[in-house]
Amino acid sequence: MITLILIGAVILLTLLLIRQSWSTINIDRKPFASRKLWSILLLSAALFLAAVIQPFSLERVDAGHVGIRVNLSGDDRGVSAYEYKTGWVMVNEWTNRLYEFPTFQQHIDYPEQQVISKGGFSATIKPSFNYSLNAGDVGDMFQNLRLSIADIEQKWLQTAIVGTVNDVANRWPIDSIFNHRELFESEIVGEANKRVEKWFKVSQLRTNIVPPPALQEAIIAKTKAIQDAQAAYQKALVADAQAKEKIAIAKGDSAYNVIQAAGKAEAIKKEQLYLTSTYIDYIRAQKWDGKYPTTVAGSGVDMLLNTK
Predict the structure, then answer these.
(1) Sequence-separated (6 or more) residues with CB below 8 Å from residue 176
(2) Share of the chain above pLDDT 70, in %
(3) C-alpha angle with apex 108: 118 to 96, nearest 5 degrees?
(4) How far is CA 252 from the centre of its chain?
(5) Contacts for 148-153 with beta carbons within 8 Å, 24 or more apart?
């Protein structure tokens, strides 16, 4: 921006000088006018060259960023000479450099990587996560890493995150990773923050882990076996409950029959108490129709009947 401003100023100044020179030129003094015009052109060319190669630039640190102007000269090559900047910043590109670091959350997707789980099984991951910088520690981070934020993301931070995923995966059996992925990734986030917490905070990490096809089939088979075993156990519980219900019903029916039989026996016993000979004769008299039998024979009498 400063270069463009200076070039524009040189062009404008040149035009003004040329215009002024032509207005004062005397026809009889052509050699003098010619020398003056050449002087103006040479001065303009020198100013134009100076504007093009001058080292100053005007840069702006955007909102949500921390700017660090680093001194490239000195014994430590800028390591100990830096200062925080905001807004518009004048930078001498020969002796200074301005770095911008975002302080709001950034999202990162890394390419596929291979990790080894407990037991030696290989799996593919493609990590994605969010991170934010500790704004007050940006200068310290630059002193240690001496990289722009783009380089830090693809070098130091990537090494830290992928290394963390690999180390945590080494402690987990492969089937546990897929059966408890939320806990697995939560442990990775905790371990990653321990490693990068000096300058970064990591959140919402997803490993997007994929097992090899053969292992995936084994996991599916194991999961199905577990589900079948659980289903069989539930069926056994249902059968046991149904058997207990039938036993309870049978006990209830048996108790009912016993009670009924006892009642009938008691009733018969009471009836027998009232069945005396007098009572029986009375019942017989109540049912007699008043007719005698045509043949009456006493006990001990022989009878011969002709049935022809």
Answers:
(1) 184
(2) 58
(3) 125
(4) 56
(5) 148/99, 149/99, 149/100, 149/101, 149/102, 153/106, 153/108
Q: Give the Cβ contact number of residue 164 at 10 Å.
A: 23
Copy the structure tokens of residue 202: 């990591």
Alpha carbons within 13 angstroms on the beta-carbon side of residue 201 total: 10
* Residue 208, SS3 per DSSP: coil
Q: Give the chain's mean pLDDT.
A: 75
Give the pLDDT band of residue 296 (cuts 50, 70, 90): low
Bridge partners of 15? none
The answer to whether residue 249 scores a pLDDT higher than 70 is yes
User: Looking at this protein, which amino acid is placed at residue 124?
Assistant: T
Helices (runs of H) and strands (runs of E) counted in the chain:
9, 10
* H/E segment holding residue 80: none
| Rounded distance between C-alpha atoms, residue 91 and residue 94, angstroms | 9
Residue 87: phi and psi, rounded to 5, are 70, -145
Q: 16-50 burial, b for 16+ CB within 10 Å, e for fewer?
A: ebeeeeeeeeeeeeeeebeebeeebeeebeebeee
More confident of the two residues 118 and 46: 118
Closest CA relative to residue 126, chosen from 192, 214, 206: 206
Q: How far apart are CA 269 and CA 129, in angstroms?
A: 91
Distance CA 183, CA 142 (A): 34
Name, in order, each residue with C-beta under 8 angstroms of 11's C-beta and a sequence gap of 6 or more.
44, 48
User: pTM of the entire structure?
Assistant: 0.55
Q: How many residues does the chain have?
A: 308
Task: Say if residues 109 and 134 touch (Cβ distance below 8 Å).
Answer: no
Contact (Cβ atoms closer than 8 angstroms) between residue 58 and residue 89: yes
Q: How far apart are the first and last CA of the chain?
A: 157
